[in-house]
Amino acid sequence: MSEKEIIQVEKIDNVGLIRMNRPKAMNALNPGLLSSLMDALESLDNQDGIGSMVITGNEKAFAAGADIKEMSSANSIEMLKDDFIPSFDRILEIKKPIIAAVSGYCLGGGNELALSCDMIVASETASFGQPEIKLGIIPGAGGTQRLTKAVGKAMAMEMILNNRTLSAQEALDYQLVNYVEPLDEYLDKAINLAQEIARRAPLAVQLGKEAVNTSFETPLSRGLKEERFAFYLLFASQDQEEGMRSFIEKRDPDWQGK
Ligand code: DAK
């Protein structure tokens, strides 16, 4: 792996680990970094033997937002034409679970990226914020919606309107993150969590992820219906048979992903 690569991809057993690698710019998300990240996610999503992914940055920064230097001279029409929101949205099509392992600054578009992952493991030094208001703009990659759903209206308003940042512990209290770990352990924790999930029944993991995400998109009655269809569908899988048989036979299941 070259130091110069904008992202670095590594496989650890059944987990794909993607490191964003623009340390001098605090991992500011430019179109090149974003599209490489999404290419890597899509490639890992299509690989047998990989069950989940971890996205991380470095100790100082997960990502300090979109690249302000590249964005500063853009006008509305250029922004609209170069629209890199679709690049962000590619993450929504990924079927396998994605865990963000966050240390240091997780700001603006960086926080929106973390919010687009399925779970977040933070180091004790992580801080979460939407500082766009300081630049005279608002979040543009889902922050006003996903952050509000994650931390509630009152805190989302304060973060988006007044640059309130959350410490790692506050992020845990506000249910933005799953775990807070010491700096030298957060990445291992994220990888371990990803490995555990990757060892579970693949079809059930895929449909479980989809069903949880559906809850953000649809009214309850529709979400419940979709959940039920997914639940019944899993009874057509060999893994359902294997899972229940292994329970009765008091042994570990041997998942086939079928
Ligand atoms: N963009 C570009 N460069 C950045 C950057 C950023 N977001 N954040 C940091 N850097 C660069 C700094 O300019 C500096 O570069 P040099 O001066 O060395 O060349 C280097 O990284 C180190 O940063 P500092 O010297 O500032 O380091 P400090 O430790 O003093 O401060 C900091 C770290 C993260 C608190 C500070 O750098 C900072 O406040 N950064 C900006 C944070 C921010 O405002 N982020 C929000 C950006 S707006 C969209 C999707 C998403 C978005 C927009 C549209 N569409 C799909 C349309 C998102 C927008 C945003 O995220």
Question: How is this fold's topology laid out?
Answer:
Elements: E1 7-12, E2 15-20, H1 31-45, E3 52-56, E4 61-63, H2 68-71, H3 76-81, H4 85-89, E5 98-102, E6 105-107, H5 109-116, E7 119-123, E8 127-129, H6 143-151, H7 153-162, E9 166-167, H8 168-173, E10 179-181, H9 186-198, H10 202-214, H11 220-234, H12 238-248
Helix pairs in contact: 5-6, 6-7, 10-11
4-(N,N-dimethylamino)cinnamoyl-COA binds at residues 25-26, 28, 64-69, 84-85, 88, 105, 107-109, 131-132, 134-135, 140-141.
Summary of the model, kept short:
With 258 residues, this protein is an alpha/beta fold. It contains twelve helices and ten strands. The chain has a six-stranded mixed beta sheet with strand order 1-2-3-5-7-10, sandwiched between helices. A four-stranded mixed beta sheet has the order 4-6-8-9.
Main pleated sheet: 6 strands, mixed
The residue ranges in which pLDDT falls below 50 over 5 or more consecutive positions are: none
Shape: globular
Per DSSP, what share of the residues sits in E-state strands of 2 or more residues? 15-25%
Present as ligands are: 4-(N,N-dimethylamino)cinnamoyl-COA
Give the neighbour order of strands across the main sheet.
1-2-3-5-7-10
Which structural class fits the helix and strand makeup?
A: alpha/beta
